[in-house]
Model the fold of this input.
Amino acid sequence: PHNRTMNISWNDLIAAQEAIARREREFRTLAENAKEFIGRWSPDGVRLYVNPALAALMGRAPDELIGQPSRGGMGGLFSDVTGAIALCAEEARPRTILHTYSNPDDGSTRVHEIQLVPEFDECGTVISVLGVGRDVTTVTRQREELEHASRTDSLTGAANRRVLYEVLPEAVVAAEQAGRHVALILTDLDG
Done:
């Protein structure tokens, strides 16, 4: 009976190790082929994992970045990300940031949304921060264009009634406080 218990325990151990190895392979396949930028940092900012997409963004190979402290990278271009990682680890709370990245090689500007999540050990201590970023440049630009279109006249480019309704109450109050009068001229140019 004693040997049988030992065999079951060994079999359980082997099965658990195989399950862990399978999950690791699944994670690697997913992360290594993702277009999103995926990284993991220790609480003090040392890179523990960098997927190929993030490494390419930083202009280096993953193995050149892993084990290195994250100090903002590429002349401080990522300093806001590094600060957010530190806050995520310190506060033990998820954070989402928008990071504007200007490529020093071609001058292009990209906007990345980065979600940072603290990872805990069994005692509830933060052991790492997982970050997943995605390029939201197109969505951000479309939102800015829609906002601009909703606030300007398409024919003249002048501020429209929406802007008037937003600023007029403040202008009237400011004029009254200064002892001045307010005049308003409305013109309909297209009709």
About this structure: The longest strand covers residues 109-120. The helical segments are 2-33, 52-57, 62-65, 79-91, 137-151, 161-178.
